[in-house]
Automatic annotation (TrEMBL):
Residues covered by the GHMP kinase N-terminal domain: 104-182
Source species, domain of life: Eukaryota
Cofactor(s) needed for function: Mg(2+); Mn(2+)
UniProt-recorded name of the protein: glucuronokinase
EC nos: 2.7.1.43
Function: Sugar-1-kinase with a strict substrate specificity for D-glucuronic acid and ATP. Involved in the biosynthesis of UDP-glucuronic acid (UDP-GlcA), providing nucleotide sugars for cell-wall polymers. May be also involved in a salvage pathway for glucuronic acid.
Organism of this sequence: Dendrobium thyrsiflorum
Pfam families according to UniProt: GHMP_kinases_C, GHMP_kinases_N
SUPFAM superfamilies on file: GHMP Kinase, C-terminal domain (SSF55060), Ribosomal protein S5 domain 2-like (SSF54211)
Catalytic activity: D-glucuronate + ATP = 1-phospho-alpha-D-glucuronate + ADP + H(+)
Molecular-function annotations in GO: ATP binding; glucuronokinase activity; metal ion binding
Similarity field: Belongs to the GHMP kinase family.
C-alpha cells in the first residue's frame, strides 16, 4: 500500500478500507475458506508525524472523554461501548515492537505522533477496528523502513494479534482483505496453517464481481445479544457444527469457480446457502432480529443476501438487474435501512509488497 502524499515533511499517511465477506465466512476461524474484498464506501486512515515524544492522539469524536451530562455519557456507552481507536493504535505499536524484537529487526531511533480518522459505521460488520490497525501498521512499516522485512502474508496475523490483546474475537479473513485489498480467495486449511504459519491467499480480478449492494442499519444497537456456543461445540467435536462449517468452506471453493465462469445464478445460490447454514448453526437469538430483517428485506424482492461479517450489514446481489435493484432500494427505504452500491477497491499491493507475494 503506497503512502498518501502530504505536504508535512516526514508525515506518513495510510488508508485501509472496509471489507465484505462474500462467501465462506465464518469458516476462516475453523480452518475453512473464504472470498472477501475491500470496498471504497468506507475507510479508516492513520497519520504518523515525527515528534519529540511518542504520542497517540485521541480522536475528538471516537475517543470522547468530555460529555454534556451523565445521560450523554451513558447513552454514548450504550451505543458505542467504552473504547475508540486509541487502544487499537497502542496495541499495534506493542505487537509491532515485539515482533521486530523477536525477529531481530533493528528499529531506528525517533518518535512520532499517531492520529486517525474513520467513517466506517460501528457495529456494522465491516471490520472497522482492523482497518485502523491495518493503516497504522503500514505507517509503522514505512516510518521504520522495514516493509521489506515483514512479509505480506504475516501482516494479517500481526493485526489480529493486536486486536486479540484487546479481547476482540475474530478470524484472519478481514485482515487479509485489508492488507491485500481487492478480491481475495483465502484457504485456511489446517495443513496450510501448520506448515506455513498462515493461510494461502490468492488475489482475484475484481472485474469478476457482478454489481453488489450494501445494506445496513444506521442504529444497529438491537443486533444479536445472545452469546454463541458454536466455537465450543466445534472444539467439542459436535458433528453438526463440523459438517456445517465444512459446507460453508466448500461454498467459497464453489464460489471461486462460479466467479471465474461468471455464473451469477450459481453465485446467488451460494450466497443464500452461506447465510442459511450460518442461521442453522448460530440460531436467531445470536444473529439478532434486525440482522435477520435485513436479509429478509433483500430476499423479499428476490435478491440473494448474506452477512458481510458477523452481522450488522448485508451484501446483496440482484441477478435480474436494474429493475430488481430498484425494488431492493424501495424495500430497504420502507424498512428503514440504508442501501448503496458497493464500490470495490482494487488491490493495494505494489512494489516490494507485490514482489513479495509473487516470490
Amino acid at each position: 500500500m503506497e503512502a498518501e502524499s502530504n505536504a508535512s515533511p516526514g508525515c506518513i499517511e495510510h488508508r485501509a478500507y472496509a471489507r465484505v465477506g462474500l462467501l465462506g465466512n465464518p469458516s476462516d476461524v475453523y480452518f475453512g475458506r473464504t472470498i472477501s474484498f475491500s470496498i471504497g464506501n468506507f475507510s479508516a486512515s492513520v497519520r504518523l508525524e515525527p515528534s519529540e515524544n511518542l504520542v497517540i492522539r485521541p480522536h475528538p469524536k471516537h475517543d470522547l472523554v468530555s460529555f454534556d451530562s451523565l445521560r450523554h455519557l451513558v447513552s454514548r456507552l450504550q451505543n458505542e461501548g467504552y473504547y475508540g481507536g486509541v487502544r487499537l493504535l497502542m496495541a499495534i505499536c506493542n505487537v509491532f515492537y515485539k515482533y521486530c524484537s523477536d525477529k531481530n529487526i533493528k528499529l531506528k531511533e525517533g518518535n512520532f505522533t499517531l492520529s486517525y480518522e474513520t467513517n466506517i459505521p460501528r457495529q456494522a460488520g465491516l471490520s472497522g477496528s482492523s482497518a485502523i490497525v491495518c493503516a497504522a501498521l503500514n505507517c509503522l512499516l514505512d516510518f521504520y523502513k522495514v516493509r521489506h522485512l515483514v512479509r505480506v502474508q504475516i501482516r494479517p496475523d500481526l493485526i489480529l494479534s493486536a486486536e486479540r490483546e484487546l479481547g476482540i474475537i475474530a478470524g484472519l479473513q478481514d485482515r487479509v482483505a485489508q492488507v491485500y485489498g481487492g478480491l481475495v480467495y483465502m484457504d485456511f486449511s489446517k495443513e496450510n496453517m501448520d506448515k506455513l504459519g498462515h493461510g494461502v491467499y490468492t488475489p482475484m480480478d475484481i472485474k469478476l464481481l457482478p454489481p453488489l449492494h450494501l445494506i445496513y442499519a444506521e442504529n444497529p444497537s438491537d443486533s444479536g445479544k445472545v452469546h454463541s456456543t458454536v466455537r465450543k461445540r466445534w472444539l467439542d467435536g459436535d458433528k453438526f457444527i463440523i459438517s456445517s462449517m465444512e459446507k460453508v468452506a466448500k461454498i467459497a471453493l464453489d464460489g471461486r469457480e462460479a466467479l471465474t465462469k461468471r455464473n451469477h445464478s450459481e453465485l446467488a445460490k451460494l450466497m443464500d446457502s452461506n447465510f442459511d447454514l450460518r442461521r442453522k448453526m448460530f440460531g436467531d437469538g445470536v444473529l439478532g432480529a434486525l440482522n435477520i430483517q435485513m436479509i429478509e428485506t433483500a430476499r423479499s424482492v428476490g435478491a440473494a443476501a448474506k452477512f458481510t461479517g458477523s452481522g450488522g450489514a448485508v451484501v446483496a446481489f440482484c441477478p435480474k438487474g436494474p429493475e430488481q435493484v430498484k425494488l431492493l432500494e424501495d424495500a430497504c427505504l420502507k424498512a428503514g435501512f440504508v442501501v448503496q452500491p458497493i464500490l470495490v477497491v482494487p488491490s493495494v499491493l505494489a512494489g516490494d509488497d507485490l514482489a513479495m507475494i509473487s516470490s
